[in-house]
Known about the structure:
Blueprint: H1 29-37, E1 42-45, E2 48-50, H2 58-66, E3 78-79, H3 81-87, E4 97-102, E5 116-121, E6 128-131, E7 134-137, H4 139-149, H5 152-164, H6 172-180, H7 188-199
Parallel strand pairs: 4-5
Antiparallel strand pairs: 1-2, 3-4, 6-7
Amino acid sequence: MVHPSGAPDPVAPDALPAELYSPGPLFSWPELQAMASDGVLTQLYQRGYLPPGTRSTPQLRARALSVMVPPPIRRRVVAGRMTAAWIYGCAPEPDRLALLVDANRRISSLRSTRGCTFHEVRLGPFDVVSLGGLMVSSPLRTAVDIALHVDAERALPALGALLDRTELCVRLRLLRLAVDATPRVPYKKAALEKLDALAGGLPP
């Protein structure tokens, strides 16, 4: 997996991901649920299951989440905000999927999709990566969106986790610059205050 710049993606797998089981020709959902009850499989997210002992990775979490996104819209949306933070292992499992839609695409036809919240945004060429067959906001874009749009109680732990994971390449100084460079938005001051709260004890 490669960024548009040609640099390796910071969350690219070293090897092929482990098997993820979801409802399909091989097993129905009731069969997967029964196998999970018997300890044969472990539920990762909703309709996605793993063999016991399998280490969860961003790729596997993205694949499990992609099962919940209807195929007709899967290539039109980007998992973002706290949903993306969960994919990166930095936030609790989401109750509803936060999906970003580029402002150049129509969002009205998507609003009837259940279990999803859509956010019309502008996405740059470095704002999206592909993980497990799903488009996901990049770690930096995820951190910026969380700082701007998520309440402090949930945002601060997620932002701290994103900053702590060195493989995600999110740095506090870079995050501050990115937030400061965003166009005038109502929550920009509050976002910078969240970053100030994180600054204590973190390297600049």
